[in-house]
Write a structure and sequence with these properties.
about 325 residues, alpha+beta, Tumour Suppressor Smad4, 2 domains, 5-stranded mixed beta sheet, 4-stranded antiparallel beta sheet, 1 helix, globular
Length: about 325
């Protein structure tokens, strides 16, 4: 009996020991899984940083080599009170192109409402819309090819023709862009506080124009313990989509480390209806690089008192 009692006790102890081992093994596995999940949680951050760095590298390549680079812009002619402008290689054209393949009197471009009517003047003249050769078309704001040049049909309610030359001498001025180190503390996922009565406001621009926009709503966030608010607007201009929004802002770095006019950021809508506001992607307007652009000036409501030390710095391409 005593031996049986000892045997039963040993079996119970063996079972208890096995249960303990199994429990410890389960706990170890659970801890390992949690640690793995924690390690995996860092992967999205790495992915975000890599995507931002790739975007910066792509931007530099575009600025250095693209036929639509800001540095490729060589002239701008505003329509002002005129309905049409002429393009050709001869003197006397509104837009004169130095290219032997361009006819003396190549094109006539007429503003028709929100569009442009482009027509060949010389019967042999052609222009490219994408890869399609044409002698006439009514087009929305876009670029067309004329000889080696691209001509941007820019509207913005203040129409103009901007010429881009792949042989622009300004490509020789290229210098690398400057950015703050990526800091994901400046990345926010935020709801838009929609404007209950979307009103039309005036956005001033760098060429002295008053551009109309809808105040779509506001984004609220905190930087360095300080509450911040930025308003999002949609420009009321041809080529701007119904759901397109932009944020034009200034902060405590403006005019010091960053461009004096201000910077822009594009809210990225998420499937859940919220928006990513990532200041690591804050960028300079085109007028930081060239005088041939008409850029929105941030409204007074978007002058932040905090320093947003993220995104693009002042490129110092222009003296002003």
């Amino acid at each position: 009996m005593q031996n049986d009692a000892h045997a039963r006790l040993e079996r119970r102890l063996d079972r208890a020991f096995c249960v303990a081992i199994a429990t410890a093994t389960w706990l170890f596995g659970l801890i390992s899984a949690v640690q793995g999940a924690m390690a995996a949680s860092s992967t999205p951050s790495d992915t975000l940083v890599a995507a931002i760095q790739k975007d910066r590298a792509d931007t530099e390549t575009w600025l250095r080599t693209s036929p639509t680079s800001y540095l490729a812009a060589v002239s701008r002619v505003d329509f002002d009170n005129r309905r049409e402008l002429t393009v050709g290689s001869a003197a006397g054209n509104d837009v004169k192109l130095e290219d032997s393949t361009v006819s003396a009197h190549h094109l006539r471009v007429t503003v028709v409402g929100d569009s442009f009517q482009v027509a060949a003047v010389d019967p042999a003249a052609r222009f490219l819309v994408g890869e399609t050769s044409m002698s006439g078309a009514t087009l929305p704001p876009r670029s067309i090819g004329v000889g080696r040049y691209l001509i941007r049909l820019s509207h913005q309610r203040f129409p103009a023709l901007i010429a881009f030359d792949p042989k622009s001498p300004r490509f020789a001025e290229y210098k690398r862009l400057q950015y703050y180190p990526v800091d994901l503390h400046y990345r926010f996922v935020l709801p838009l506080t929609t404007n209950p009565r979307p009103d039309t406001i005036i956005i001033l621009s760098t060429r002295g124009n008053s551009r109309r926009a809808v105040r779509a709503g506001w984004f609220d966030f905190t930087v360095g313990g300080k509450r911040c608010r930025l308003e999002a607007t949609r420009l009321l201009e041809p080529g701007v989509g119904e759901n397109d929004m932009g944020i034009f802002f200034r902060d405590a770095t403006t005019g010091k480390e960053t461009y004096g006019v201000g910077r822009y950021i594009d809210p990225e809508k998420q499937p859940d209806g919220r928006y990513v506001i990532d200041f690591n992607r804050a960028y300079n307007p085109a007028c930081a690089f060239s005088d041939y652009y008409n850029c929105p000036i941030p409204p007074k409501a978007n002058a932040l008192k905090v320093a947003i030390q993220a995104g693009e710095k002042d490129p110092h391409y222009l003296a002003h």
